[in-house]
Amino acid sequence: MANADTRLSTPGPRIRCASIRLAASTISAKPPVSVLATLGLAENSGDSLISAATVGKPCSVSSSTAFTNTLASLSSVILFLPNSVAIMVFGFLRSSTDRVPCPMNIRDLFLTRLSTCAMSGVLLLRQLAAYSRWANTRFLDRLSEETEELLDRPVASSFPSLRATCLHIRDAESAWTLRLQGISTIPWPAEPATTLASWQKYTQALVALVDQATEEWSSASVVYHDLRGNRHEQPRWEMLLHCFNHSTQHRGQLITMMRTLGLDRIPATDLIVYQRSLRQG
Fold first, then answer.
1. Which residues contact 127 (CB under 8 A, 6 or more apart)?
2. Domain map (residue ranges) of the chain
3. pLDDT at site 85
4. How many CB atoms are located within 10 Å of the residue 109 CB?
5. 231 three-state secondary structure
6. Contact between residue 133 and residue 207 where contact means Cβ atoms under 8 Å apart
7. 262: number of Cβ within 10 Å
8. Where does 121-280 sit in CATH, by number?
9. pLDDT digits (tens, 9 = 90+) for 162-177
10. 100: which DSSP letter?
11. Can you tell me the distance from the alpha carbon of 126 to that of 129, in angstroms, rounded to the nearest whole number?
12. Claim: this prediction has a pTM higher than 0.70
């Protein structure tokens, strides 16, 4: 898909912006971002509907509804769209003899929307990092009340005990923090210490790194090797989402293990609980 038209539909005469032509090589280089940049966004502004979308034919408000819904389902990709892509798209906007040039305010709105969405992606990463630290801390506080014997008591799960599960989360967070910085030598485990308290500093290091993140940093790709020596290359935001999801998965296992061991006062660590706690102060 190398061509797409950007249309502006209003209650009055239809205004059509010029074709956006993006090379297929650009799309294949960064498929989700480039395809979405080619297709565009839909945005309500005053009396007009900006519908960037259809190929080769006018786009009315009604006919663009399904397309708009499709774009909505891809909103997570929009979050990490670099500003440079938005600028590139509008560099390809050209008026033709039978079309009214795209109004400058529409271009500004599009660029502002993309910039806002991209920065929202960074803010989302920061919130997820802060949430992960909050959830980890709740488990640390609760489990610190238990005996060493109970922390090491065998429980059927991915890892054989509460301590082993906590240390696995610690080691993974440490590894991803180093990979995100381009460090190739990954110690595993993160350190010889097996105290639960050792977990906290690695969580904090990850949060500190994400707090400094920018749009460009989060969208840039990093080459790294997994523990088996396999080479991978991914944008940092993908690596971060995996890291946060990985910690959430194993915290869920901690809850099941605690229940199996008959423990009470199990921490409530759902994301919505964290978000509500922020609103409540």
1. none
2. 3-102, 121-280
3. 52
4. 16
5. strand
6. yes
7. 7
8. 1.20.120.450
9. 999 999 999 999 999 9
10. P
11. 5
12. no
